[in-house]
């Protein structure tokens, strides 16, 4: 027995909105321990909807629909389901009254097209919608097939899922086991290199280990199936410890951890402060740091030194070095880091300068060349050179550069704390 999620809406196919409903439902199914192997997205077309249903019932016993339950002509989910299973629709007077009452509560009158939302296949149970006008349904049209429908509005769907769908699925025997996952995060190592180091762990069945590549980072998902989250964590923990030992300093955190969060915790533990001087990242590093609540404890501020005059006037960068080596160079990155550290009176200073493109590259200084200066409390100043490549766009180069700066500080703090 497994589930297929079917998301209905031409706007999803066109990319007008992000399909967050599928992501939410996938996580919820894992929590209930329900196998989930397929997701489908289909536009607002009754024939294609029926084709998707035909495929889905051949490989899943529970079909979960989101979208297509509204009052407009392109809302076709309920009609397509009833037509596919050759079952007439029937109007529920209690639903009409409920919809009318909801309109009255906001000072509006229900229009005739909303009566469409009170139609359900004969024999289906209503899945109440406490916050909207589009109810869903729970229906078993055939032996071994269960359908659940939800509106496409995420807030409505989530509330209906929590209040009605979960109790129903648990009553069917689901939820006795859960699938719990930990997402381990790494930086400074490629996906293939990390996969080779932990290849022997990919053969496990409970827990399982699977690699994922992200922008400038690698992740390993460790998942276990057990009767409770505590039991699952107990299964995951030894594998997680093995991976951390293998990865060393390349491992930086898990699940919702960000580099900015981890670095902030390190600075707070060390009772040290940080300031940043940014050129090519244009304030992106400062934005990452201030995303963390309470970051004012350790992050004092930054200077966006985009023009060379600002580099000289506020950060004390040498005009001679700018002329001799250029703004994108090791000496300038170091002086930016030192300058902001001295100017703002912090323990650590970071300076970033680079060529994010699309223009500005030369033969000797290609697109994606970035220098990161790191001024330490001891007075020592480090510099790191990166070649991020011409295949990355401006936004990616800026983002990865800010992350690389945080990662280098993280590694230094690991050795100091």
TrEMBL record:
Pfam families listed in its UniProt record: CinA (PF02464), CinA_KH (PF18146), MoCF_biosynth (PF00994)
Domain annotation MoaB/Mog: ranges: 4-172
Family, similarity comment: Belongs to the CinA family.
NCBIfam families: cinA_nterm, molyb_syn, PncC_domain, PRK00549.1
Record protein name field: CinA-like protein
Organism for this UniProt entry: Gloeothece verrucosa (strain PCC 7822)
Lineage start: Bacteria, Bacillati, Cyanobacteriota, Cyanophyceae, Oscillatoriophycideae
